[in-house]
Amino acid sequence: MSEQQAKLSEKEMKTYRVQGFTCANCAAKFENNVKALPGVQDAKVNFGASKITVWGTTTIEELEKAGAFENLKIREDKEKAVKREPFWKQKENMKVYISAVLLVISWFLGKQYGEEHIFVTIGYAASILIGGYSLFIKGFKNLVRLQFDMNTLMTVAILGAAAIGEWGEGATVVILFAISEALERYSMDKARQSIESLMDIAPKEALIRRGNEEMMVHVDDIQVGDIMIVKPGQKLAMDGIIIKGTSTLNQAAITGESVPVAKTVGDEVFAGTLNEEGLLEVKVTKRVEDTTLSKIIHLVEEAQAERAPSQAFVDRFAKYYTPAIIIFALLLAIIPPLFMGADWSEWIYRGLAVLVVGCPCALVISTPVSIVTAIGNAAKNGVLIKGGIYLEEAGSLKVIAFDKTGTLTKGVPSVTDVVTYNGNENELMTITAAIEKGSQHPLASAIIRKAEENGLNFNDVSVEEFQSITGKGVKAKVNNKMYYVGSPGLFEELLPNGIQSEIKEQITTLQTQGKTVMALGTEKEILALIAVADEIRESSKEVIRKLHQVGIEKTVMLTGDNQRTAEAIGKQVGVSDIKADLLPEDKLNFIKELRDKYQSVAMVGDGVNDAPALAAATVGVAMGGAGTDTALETADIALMSDDLSKLPYTIKLSRKALAIIKQNITFSLGIKALALLLIVPGWLTLWLAIFADMGATLIVTLNSMRLLKVKE
HMA domain: which residues (predicted)? Predict the structure, then answer.
C-alpha cells in the first residue's frame, strides 16, 4: 500500500467486484478513469482478482460509467456474483458468431461474383461493423487522446485495409481479433475460478443456538461467542473451539492435508472444513471476515495484485514498444512510395500488417495468467504464496535454512530413555513426576506426560519443601526424604565424590545421541537417569531428500541447542549444514551472511520466534498458518498445515512457473520478430499477422494453464 493510500485509508475505503475485464490494459484504463471521478482520491485495480479498491466517495453508477468503454459491471464486495452464462452463450461472444457467418457468406459471394461486387463489399463491411463495433469505439477514443494501445492499432489497421479495398482481409482481422479477445477472457476467467472456488468452500449460513433456541443464521450475523451446531457431513461456516463432541475433520480446504484429523473438546476448528462423523458444538471465536479462510482468500487476492519482476519488465517494455511499432509502420508505409516510387497500396498494406503483428497482446498476458494460475493452484493445496515476486524468488532458490525446534522436530520434548540404578522404574518416575509438577520447565512437562502415559498416580504423592535451584534443577521432600532432580552438573557438585565413572559414560552416550539428560537422586547417590529429546517429525527426512532432488544446493539447520544435540538431529534428518548454539539475533545475522553469499535464501520457521530471520530471508516460509496469525502476517509463503511436506511441491511449482513465464516472454517476442522478418519478401498478409498474434496469445495462455496440473 502506498503512503498516500495509507493516509487515505482512515477516510472512506471501499472494495468493489468488477465483472467484464478482458485485458490488463483495460484494467489500467478503468483505474485511471475512476481516479478522475469527482470525490475519488485514489483507486487501485486488482486485475487477477477482478476487484477495485476506491479511496473517497463514489457510487456504483459512477463506477459503471467509468467502465462503460468495456461495459463493466460493478457490485459490492460482499454481494454474491451473478452466475455468468456458459462461455459460448455470453453476449459479448454473440456478435463474433454473427460477424463470422457474414464473413463466410461474403467469401462465397466473392467466389461467385468476384471480389469487387457491391454485395460482397457490403457483406464484408457489415461483418467488420458488427464484429468490431466496440473495438472501433475504444480505438477512436484512444486515437483522439493519442493513447496507443491494442485497440488503437487494430482500428487503424482495419480502417486502412478497408481504405485500400482489402475488405475481406479487414473482416478476417476483426474476427480473429475478437476470437483472441474472447480466448483471453476465457483464460483469465479460468484462472480466477481458483479464487472463486475458495470462496464457495464455506457455507453461507449455520445452525446457531442462542439461549434455548436453535436457528439458521447468515454468517454475516453470527457473533463471537455464539454456539454453532455442526452435524456429520456438514461443513463448518465459522472458526471456533469445540465445546462438545468428538469427530474427524477433513481440513484439506485449509491445510491441503488429505488425511482427516481427529478433533475433540478444546481443539481449534476452521471454517470450510468438513465434519465427517460426530455431532459437534463449536463456540465461534471469530467474525466471518476474520476467519482463517477469509484471510486466505484476502491474501490470495492481494497476492495476485502484486506485480512480479518479470511483469514489471513486460509493462515497461510494452510502454515503449507500442509507439515504436506505430512509428515503424508509418515509415514503412510512406518511405518506399515517396522516395523509391513503390506502389502506395502495397506498402500501406505492409505497414498495416506491421501494426497488427506488433500488437503486444501475448506479451502483456504472458506473466499475469501464469502467476494467477500458480497462486490459485498453491492455495488449493494448502500453500499461501503472497505475491508473484515470492513465487519467482522461490523458483530461483539455492539455499533453504530451517529452524530446528517445531519445524524439523515436533517442538515437544518427550522422554526417550529411563535408566535406573537403585529401585523400581515406575516408583522412581512417580516421585520425579510428583516433584516436577511444581516446575515450569519444558522438560518437566515431558516427564509428567510420560508418567500419565504409564498410568502412574503421581498426583496422590505429597510433596513438601519444594525449591528451585536456579539453572540446575529442583529439590523437594517426598515421604520425609529429600530428592533432587536436575542436570548432571548439579550432582557433580552435590555428591561427595562426584558422579561415578560408569554413570558418567552412560550420560555421555545419551548426550551423543542428541538427548538432554536429567538425573533423580539424593545427596548420596544417583537413583535414575531420564533422557529427554525433541522428536523429529516423520516427514522431515523425506522433505530434505526431495528438496535436494529438486535442485536445492544446500539445506541448513539453525538451532539454539548445543553442538552435540544439533549434530545428532541434523545427521538423522539429512541436512547439508548445521549451525548450533544460536540466539535469535545470531539466526538473523547468519541469514544475512547466506544472502550475501548465495543471493537467494529461504528461511523456514514456525513464524513465532523466527519473525526477524523470516523477514531477513529472500523468502520467509512459515508453517502452521492455519493456527497462527503471526505466521500468516510475517511470512512471504505460509504452509497452512503444521507440516513441511508441502515445501518440495511449492519449490517445484515456483520453478515451473518461472520456467513458463520465461518461455512465454521468449515465445511472444520470437513470434513478433519472425513475423516482422516476413515483411521483407512481402509474405506477411494481414490475416497471417493477426493469426500470428492470436496464436501467440492462445499458446501463451494454454502454456500458463499447465500450472494447474502441478501436483505434489
Answer: 12-75
